[in-house]
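User: Some background: our group keeps a shared notebook of sequences we're curious about, and every so often someone picks one and asks for a predicted structure to add to the entry. Today it's my turn. The entry only has the sequence so far, pasted here. Could you supply the structure so I can complete it?
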Amino acid sequence: MNSLERSIIANPALAHDGRLKINWAADHMPVMNRLREQLKVDRPLAGLRVAISLHLEAKTANLAEVIRDAGAEVVITGSNPLSTQDDVCAALAADGVTVFAKYNPSPEEYKDHLIKTLETKPDLIIDDGGDLVTVLHSERPDLAEQVRGGCEETTTGILRLQALEKTGELKFPMIAVNDALSKYLFDNRYGTGQSVWDGINRTTNLVVAGKTVVVVGYGWCGRGVAMRAKGLGAKVIVTEIDAVKATEAHMDGYTVLPIAEAAKQGDYFVTVTGNKGVITAEHMKSMKNGAILSNAGHFNVEIDTEGLATMAVSKQTVRKDIEEYVLEDGRKIYLLAEGRLVNLAAGDGHPAEIMDMTFALQTLSLLFVHENYQRIGKRVMEVPYEIDEQVSRYFLESLGIQIDSLSEEQEKYLASWQLD
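Assistant: Of course. Here's the predicted structure to add to the notebook entry:
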């Protein structure tokens, strides 16, 4: 049985359109192209099976095909019901990758796709939000026996992994790709910043300049969202629970307020905390007529959508990916993309050049786990700095940018405690 016959996808006839998308992304991912050329020769993953759960769009497809070209059998599923692109799934399935995914599956289908991916008994995994790891540690621990280890893409997933490690329940080593410098400084900040506003702008077709944007959370993703909002001409309010981050937001020129106060002023709201219930029904009671709510955290738990639905006297879809809730007093509140990741559910995600770096980190980290899983042990490990630095160096080289190197004398000086 070939990969297309094994796959569960929406429409195989969409493969041509999906291939065009994948090729466009690949043409703008020079670091991954450089890795691909070497991996096609070395084939370090020959004989292994790799399971991937990521936002299944064109850039992710390129990652899957690079890992396939490294010799692995690749099985992939989505990590969010609304971010999967059916044409990309069809193209992958037609070209040697087994796919269990389709756009907007039911919760039962979504879970079944995860389990079917794991039932192929992978040797290595790449996870996003910890979905594969959670299933392996809760519902199907029998499928974890062959897993050597893997990589995690997000803050949310790393929190899950750290909780498992803390209790001694983690069954295999995982590398925290999200915590690499070449990930959060660029993907989380510049990728999220641009893609969130791409998603909001294309969905609403409304002006941002002169409006008030409330950014809930000032981690690296929040920094990016706030920076891009400011660049679009918005007045930006940041809400935080961390005093250091709140201080940084203040020094960066933003107004810092509690969410209860910010709720009264915002025109746009973007949640980027990774936590649940950061915008509650109580906050919505004081929002302006026409307030627009969106989420850029991994799961759709940051905005209390159930509370909003309970408060509303009517609800309708007024535009693709925009739900209008009319409250008892006549005020209207708009929710984008069902409260799911607005940059992927209502957009195409991060720019290809940004994901080039992130997926290069994933590729090299996966190879590191494969080569060192017995030595690492059952723990969450940071990306080795050598990999981090290598990815950024390759990225600079792809742009024709050169940097300096330390002289032998400078290296000796930095390594010595004597200041002469």
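Suggested note for the entry: The first strand starts at residue 49 and ends at 54. The mean pLDDT is 96.
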